[in-house]
Write a structure and sequence with these properties.
- It contains four helices and two strands; from the N terminus they run ααααββ.
- It has a two-stranded antiparallel sheet.
- About 25% of the residues are buried.
Length: about 120
């Protein structure tokens, strides 16, 4: 599988913040951790959603869920929690989720026009 971002420690920090977990009303996400890894892969690589590797699931499902969480305001708290625990590469602003180059993990070069996960 592609390079993972969420260590067990980071996962323990963000898991309680995510919608779709056991105990939440409505539908439950199948695998919130895999979903986050998919979104982080998009942010890190700058690839278009359609290029999401199949090991992360269907690209359109991931794309739709990302935007649903964006409308619910989930991303700022997730990014803030991860940054507090050492994931300084992540940013969230009006343009969406992004990956800052040149931090502790090397990331592939961004392609022109596809630099955001939004």
């Amino acid at each position: 599988m592609a390079d993972r971002i969420l260590s067990d420690e980071l996962w323990a920090v963000v898991a309680p913040l995510l919608p779709g977990k056991e105990g939440d009303p409505g539908c439950h996400g199948r695998d919130n951790r895999l979903f986050l890894e998919a979104v982080f892969w998009i942010a890190r690589t700058g690839a278009p959603w359609r290029d999401l590797p199949p090991e992360f699931g269907k690209w359109y499902t991931t794309y739709t869920r990302y935007h649903r969480w964006e409308r619910k305001g989930v991303w700022p708290s997730v990014v803030e929690a991860l940054q507090r625990h050492g994931a300084a590469e992540l940013r969230y602003d009006a343009a969406g989720l992004s990956w800052t180059q040149g931090q502790s993990r090397a990331a592939p070069s961004r392609r022109s026009g596809h630099g955001k996960a939004a």
